[in-house]
Amino acid sequence: MIVLGIESSCDETGLAVYDSEQGLLAHVLHSQVAVHAEYGGVVPELASRDHIRYLLPLIGEVLQQAGIGKHELEGIAYTAGPGLIGALMSGAAVARSLAWALAIPAVEVHHMEGHLLAPLLEEEATDFPFVALLVSGGHTLLAYVAAIGEYEIIGQSLDDAAGEAFDKTAKMMGLGYPGGPVLAELAASGRGDAFQFPRPMTGRPGLDFSFSGLKTFALNTWEQNRKQSDNKDQLRANIACAFEQAVVDTLLIKCRRALQQTGCARLVVAGGVGANQRLRQRLHQSAKEHQFSVSFPRLEFCTDNGAMIAFAGCLRLQAGQSQPLDIDARARWPMEDLLPLRR
Ligand code: KG4
Ligand code: ZN
After folding, report:
1. Ligand (nearest to CA of 187)
2. pTM (2 decimals)?
3. In degrees rounded to 5, what are phi and psi of residue 183?
4. 203 and 329 belong to one structural domain
5. What is the pLDDT of residues 151-190, one digit of tens each?
6. What share of the chain is helix, strand, coil (3-state, %, to 5)?
7. What is the 180 CA–ligand 2 centroid distance (Å)?
8. Could you tell me if 190 and 282 lie in one domain?
9. Pocket test for ligand 1, best of 8, 303, 304, 305 (most atoms within 8 A of CB)
C-alpha cells in the first residue's frame, strides 16, 4: 500500500511517501524557523499560514521524488493532533480534500504515535513489547507499548516537557529560537564540573518528571554569575552543560526504573530531544552495562517529519482503519484513547 503522510502540527511542514512493500520512497521537510525566529517562539497564526503556503507545492515535490503520480496513492495519513489547532487544520483540510478527490481513504494519525513508531522505520527495528521514552517539545512521557495502538502511560511530565525546558533555558540566556539544539551544541564546550544542577524527582519512587525547576535553577545560576563573569560565552556553555547533564541523567534514571518496573529489556527513544547526542551516548552506554537494548530513529526522524506519519498511517490503513470526511483535528488527544491495531 502506498501512503502519503502529512505532518503540520507545529512549525514544520513534513511530507512523505511510504510503501508497505518497499519502505520509505521519499520525504521532504520545510522548516518555519525563519518565520518565527524574530518572535523568539512559534506564532500559531503564522504557522498555519505558512503550512497553507507550502503544503501543495511540497506534495508535488515529494511525489516527484518518489517517482509516482498522485493516482498511484492508495491512502493519505495526516496528523490530527495533538498540536496547534490552526496548523493541524491546514494539513487535515488538504489531506481530506485530496483523499476525497482521489477516492482513497484518509486516516488520522496521533502525532506522538508517529514519533513513537519512527524507530520502526529503521532496518533493525525492535520487537514488542517495549518501553518508549517520548521526549519532544510538547511532551515527555514513558509508555509501556504492548503492541501498536496499545499504550499505557507509566510516567509523564507534570510541568514543562524536556524540549520545552531546553528551549526556555536557551532563550533566557539569549540563545534565540529554537534553543534546544543550540543549547546542546554549546554544552559540548562547557565544563561539566562548574555547576551542579539537581536531578528532579529521582530521589522518590515513580516515573513522572518535572523539568520546570531545572529551568529556574538555570535562570538563577545565570543571574547570579553573569555580572561578575568576564567570559559570558564560557558561563553560558557551563550552564548549558550542567543543565544538559541534569536532564539526561534524570531521563536515564527514569528509563532504567521503567525497564525494571515493567520487566522489559527493550527501550525505544523518540521525539526531538532524542536527537541529543549526550542522551544517545549515555543510553547506549547504560544499555551495554545493564543488558537492555535501545533504539532511536535516525537523527532527521527524531524531530517532526512526514515519514513517521506516513508509516503510522499506513499501518492503521492496512488494519482497515480510516475516518469519514469530517475534519476532526484536536489540540489535545490522550494517547491512551487510540484504537489498538489488532482487534
Ligand atoms: O519532536 P519535536 O520536533 O516537536 C514536538 O513534537 O514538540 O521536538 C522539538 C523539541 C524542541 O524543544 C527542541 O528544542 C528539541 O526537541 N531538540 C533538542 C535537540 N534537537 C531538538 N533538544 C536537545 N538536544 C537536541 N539536540
Ligand atoms: Zn513532534
Report:
1. 1
2. 0.95
3. -60, -40
4. no
5. 999 999 999 999 999 999 999 999 988 899 999 999 999 9
6. 50, 20, 35
7. 13
8. yes
9. 303
